[in-house]
Amino acid sequence: MSPNDSVYIKKNLPDNISKIGGILLVIGLVLGIAAFFVDSYRASFAYLVSFIFFLSIVVGSLFLVALEYAANADWSTPFRRVSEFLAAGLPLLLIFTIPLLFNTSSLFQWSHADFVNSDKMLQAKSAYLNTPFFMVRVFVIIIIWIFFYFLIIRNSRKQDETGNQALTKRNITLSVIFIPIFAITITLVAVDWIMSLESKWFSTIFGVYLFAGVAWSSLAALTLTSIKLKEKGFLHPAVKEDHYYSLGTLMFAFTAFWGYIAFSQYMLIWYGNLPEETFWFMQRWAGGWKIVSVLLIVTHFIVPFFYLISYEAKTNPKKLKFISIWILCVHLLDIYWLIMPSMSRNDHAYSFSWIDFVFPLIFIGVIMIVFKKVSEKINLVPVRDPKLERGLNFHL
Amino acid sequence: MADNKLYCVSALFDTPDKIINAAKKTTESGYKKFDVNTPYPVHGMDKAMGLGQSKIGYVTLFFGLSGAAFIFLFMWWTFASSYNLVVGGKPFLSAPAFIPITFETTVLFAAISTVVGMIAVYFKLPDNNNPIHDTDYMKAVSGDKYGLFIEADDELFDKDKVTEFLKSLGAYKVSDIYFPEKETYKMFAPGFLFFLAVVGIITNAATYITLNKLMYLTPYDWMEFQDKLTAQEGSNIFADGEGMRVPVEGTVARGEIPYPYSSPTDTTEALTNPTIPTKEVLDLGKRKFLTFCSPCHGNFAEGESRLHQQFPTGPTLVKSKIINYPDGRIYHIITTGQNVMPSYARQITREERWAIIDYIRVLQRAQNASKADLDLVKKESSSNVAK
């Protein structure tokens, strides 16, 4: 190994990234705004799907960063910055929430006073499910995340300049505090944004279900971005297949975890067979949704499980790239499956619309632009992190 | 020991870096039959030893899938094929309920087969006599040292060269390991078999005496044994020694009125049916008739019953002789019995007896229905339909 191979040299990412991101963002914005004018009811649901997808990736990436610190993992240190950059869109959640807050009356039945007054169950739930408290929760949760994001990221970046090892310790403390808070807040997000669309439905495992998807998709985003960056030579040259293998293993683990959680949720409801719980699955088994449900089982569990089970797939960057894109698409499908059936409620007539597909463009564009913007000033590798050397020497 | 064949030359190292380096150099020097022993898995060892991908994964995969298939078919066979069992109103073959068990069994089969497979391959089962067992080398690598040994039947093996080579790698101790002396097992020697038999007998006897004689406790008997007197049981409280007592003479049980008549003719005038044959009374009579009378007299009192001549057949009750009996006479027969028929006074209350008689009257009329009766029935049923 020549010395040039073992040293990270900062290179600027190509401008294409922000250009393509900008184009996607503009197309998405134009079509999205048009969608709100054409059918604001449908558009608010479609927007919510993409919003949750974006939220999954940004807050999931922050979770991965915190997880690395809390577990004192060193193998992932060489590409921790990738997760940090992916999480950089987190403060934008404050802006992206606004279109939803204007459309709560389209999204949530419980926000209609006359509907709640006619229903005893919703009256009992109204102490939690009411618009002011909902707004408070939404903003408090996002602000907590942003708070931790800035603290952890600031320490990590400061270390590039000072090399102070105490910063790692401080970040470990912050991460250990953040992870349980993340567990509670992601559960509340799942309940508030998705479960309350069906205001009478309940499932106590629902927060974990969303978490499984969040961790899975942010790992896929990390894998995809890292491999792309490594291929183009932007990452540390010493990153090798052992690192990919670990990422692949984690994706494999979360594939199984999602399957476990999704099945646990389904089986208890199926066994109990109580109408107040089963209707949610009946909605998703009616008409064309049946195809989507089966497709979800196949694409979300069976395909990635058997794809990632071999050593070969986990060490081959090309195969990993493919399954990462697959996972991101399927996670979007999963959220779509969670949210959209509630739009038509019990009216089974449902058809795809162009509106469903425009909003992901906005968020993919935003992630790309933010990534490029952040990477201009900051190293893609935490060059003076005390764990970096061990991380680069990582062997299976 | 010197007489035995040399198995290998072993070397002990202090640090994981040294053992990785040693493994790398050994591979580069072209030795094939060597192995490394470390107290914990050292990262990067597979590559340093030049090992390929382990094949154990295929064992795990195969047995995992076999476990899944086996248990799923087993559940299908037991629940849905051989003996259909309704559980919670679900279909017999309900996959969601089977999945947790399929999952667990997959994990069980996969895990056990992996462990057993590794042990079997490594120890070359059923042989469990690897020469490096029970050596100082093994003791050291089970503690905090890292060991490497090169086997004597490697193609490049030369004892002095290997010793020099291992020392040059930085081993702090290099030692030779020989095959142990062949042990002979006297599994079926008579003395040993006798010893086994004696141990077996003594263990059995000691267990039996201890548990059944010395430490016997009545297991929880669900109140099987109580101090009260049961039927047919003797008692020394009473002078005659019998537990069962006769009521004081002249006792009349609550709600029981003595039946004073002994001959059917007495009752004809004395007893009249106090009931009015309403629907409720007839329903009661029918129920009691079917319970107590129909076994001998038949469901429609026709005399042909389900006993089918295996017991003296009860006479038909729909013949004119019985039709002409007054209610009181039938009441008397039910109460006291007649010929083979026993008394039903204890089983059937007085109200029920009268209700039965009302029902018998219905049967009698039904069996001998006149045209006027049939017309009436027709008329009523058609009027019901009209409603």
From the structure above, extract its key features.
heterodimer, A: 396 residues, mainly alpha, 18 helices, globular, B: 387 residues, alpha+beta, Cytochrome Bc1 Complex, Chain D, domain 2, 3 domains, four-stranded antiparallel beta sheet, 13 helices, 4 strands
Write up this protein:
The complex is a heterodimer of chains A (396) and B (387). Chain A has 396 residues and is mainly alpha-helical. Chain A has helices at 16-38, 40-71, 80-86, 93-102, 104-107, 113-117, 120-125, 131-162, 166-194, 206-231, 241-272, 275-283, 289-308, 311-315, 317-339, 341-344, 355-377, 388-392. In chain A, helix 2 (40-71) packs antiparallel against helix 4 (93-102) and helix 2 (40-71) runs parallel beside helix 17 (355-377). The longest helix of chain A has 32 residues, at 40-71. The mean pLDDT of chain A is 90. Chain B has 387 residues and is an alpha+beta fold. Chain B has helices at residues 16-28, 45-48, 56-82, 95-123, 136-141, 159-168, 190-214, 264-270, 279-297, 320-324, 327-336, 350-367, 371-386, and strands spanning 6-13, 34-37, 146-151, 173-178. The relative contact order of chain B is 0.09. Chain B is elongated. Chain B is built from 13 helices and 4 strands. Chain B has 3 domains: 6-178, no CATH class; 187-251, no CATH class; 267-386, Cytochrome c-like domain (Cytochrome Bc1 Complex, Chain D, domain 2, Orthogonal Bundle). Chains A and B meet through helix 11 of A and helix 4 of B.
